[in-house]
Amino acid sequence: MRWSKAIWRSKRPTALPTTRRHHDAHPAPRPGRHPAHQRHGYLHPGLSESPAEDLCDQADPEAMINALLAGTRCMYANEDSTHTLQQTFDALFYPALGLDPTALAPRLARFYAEVFPRLRHLTAPRPAAQRLVTAARARGYRLALASNPLFPRAAIVERLRWAGLDPAHFDLIPGYETFHFVKPHPAFFAELLAQLGCPEGPVVMIGNAPEDDIASARRLGLSTYWVTDSPPPDLPAPHGAGPLEGMLPWLENTPPEALLPQMEHREAYLYRLRATPAAFHTAIATLPPAAWHRRPDARSWSLTEILCHLRDVEAEVHLPHLRRVLTEDNPFLPHIETERQAEEGVDQHQDGAEVLARFVALRLETLTLLQNLPPADWVRPARHARLGSIHLTELVGLIAEHDRLHLRQAAPLWRAYPNGTGLVE
Question: For 266-416, which CATH class?
């Protein structure tokens, strides 16, 4: 069995999320099977132990295997904040086979409702994981699953049940319908935190996969606990390692301030900038029109107003400032007021979906501008009207921090809907 898990804790008693993969997603391969059947029998929302077998009346089995592998590679390579992993996979898989995804949807739903649960006997829960989740919840920690979202969410939820865990105990469960990046891309963790509304306080990633779980989380700037029977003797703080049973004692003996995310470096900034539009894309994709304009109170912004502000700042502040720093010698950057329209209610009447699309397009321009810059460009200086001397890395850090503030502002709004409790027009 393979295991991965992550935890983060905030200043509030209920704000420690934990993430963990609780068992192997794939049943043991059968002798004599095609290697791709063995590795990818459940990768796509397949319809049997081998998708090629179940869809033999729809497509050639070998062609399906090739399409599965190609679609999976596309999901691993995806860096597009506007396309979920499902959209990325489907865009290659179905056209390659000449299949209609809409026509197959009932068949896929039936598979996950009736067939997939019967595979439970091929896995076994780990009681230590059940005890860990129970103990973490008793301590007021928030839990989130960080399983790689290469599957439909229904499959990942079912796997939690196989592990003897209640899906309701997790604040967030990823799926390929709702995520844009996969491990080992550190943007996966940035997207996970963004979808949670960037909770404050310590964060720990717990997992057993050295590259997918531990190294990628560290690249973003998260503390980690590596589940292993052979912990390295020279593990740098604030990272831990050892058996699963040792995780909570390690956590409680580590000062909380040592576990705060350290995401103030240029690599992490780029992951965070990519995750912001991805999180909004997922959270708002299915909202009805009325939800865009609802406010928690008369003095707060709606989702439309938040997105208008992000769009305007990207267009009028972030992109112009970055371009000037990269093309001019120590330019002066004026302060530009961008909150007036939201405060006056002008933005409230705009089309939220169009605003989001424009913000995403602008953010992609920002990322294109920053990708592959030589190290010397990251320290190019400027003079800011309010902040004084500043260099490019610091400017990009301000963009990431601005994103964080407004993700925290927006998250309660998208979580409150559709119940709408406490929201007013």
Answer: mainly alpha
Asked if pLDDT for residue 312 goes beyond 90, the answer is yes
How wide is the angle at C-alpha 340 spanned by C-alphas 323 and 320, nearest 5°?
5
Q: CA 102: distance to chain centroid?
A: 26
Task: Give me the mean pLDDT over the 243-250 stretch.
Answer: 93
pLDDT for position 34? 37
CA proximity to 15, closest of 218, 196, 267, 286: 196
Backbone torsion region of residue 5, taken as left when φ is above 0, otherwise alpha when ψ lies between -120 and 50, otherwise beta: beta
Q: How many CA atoms lie within 13 A of 93 on its CB side?
A: 26
Q: What angle do CA 353, 81, 78 make, to 5 degrees?
A: 150
The CATH homologous superfamily of the domain defined by 4-22+127-259: HAD superfamily/HAD-like (3.40.50.1000)
The amino acid sitting at 127 is: P
Number of H helices, E strands in the chain: 17, 8
- By residue count, the chain amounts to 425
CA distance 139 to 125: 22
User: For the packed helices 187-195 and 266-284, what is the interaxial angle rounded to 10 degrees?
Assistant: 50
Ramachandran sector of residue 63 (left: φ over 0; alpha: ψ -120 to 50; beta: rest): alpha
- In the block, tokens 């319809």 appear at 47
DSSP β-bridge partners for residue 383: 332, 389
Closest CA to 177 of 32, 51, 45, 333: 45
The tens digit of pLDDT for each residue in 368-420 reads 999 999 999 999 999 999 999 999 999 999 999 999 999 999 999 988 764 33
CA–CA distance from 46 to each of 15, 111, 112, 116, 121 (Å)? 36, 8, 9, 9, 18
Q: State the DSSP string of 48-63.
A: SSSHHHHTTTTS-HHH
Is the confidence at residue 25, as pLDDT, over 80? no
Query: Given a cut of 80, is residue 331 above it in pLDDT?
Result: yes
User: d(Cα 385, Cα 41) in Å, to the nearest integer?
Assistant: 58
Torsion, CA 74, CA 75, CA 76, CA 77, rounded to 10: 50
pLDDT digits (tens, 9 = 90+) for 9-20: 443 322 233 333
Domain boundaries, the chain: 4-22+127-259, 35-121, 266-416
Beta bridge partners of 382: 390
Q: What is the pLDDT of residue 32?
A: 37
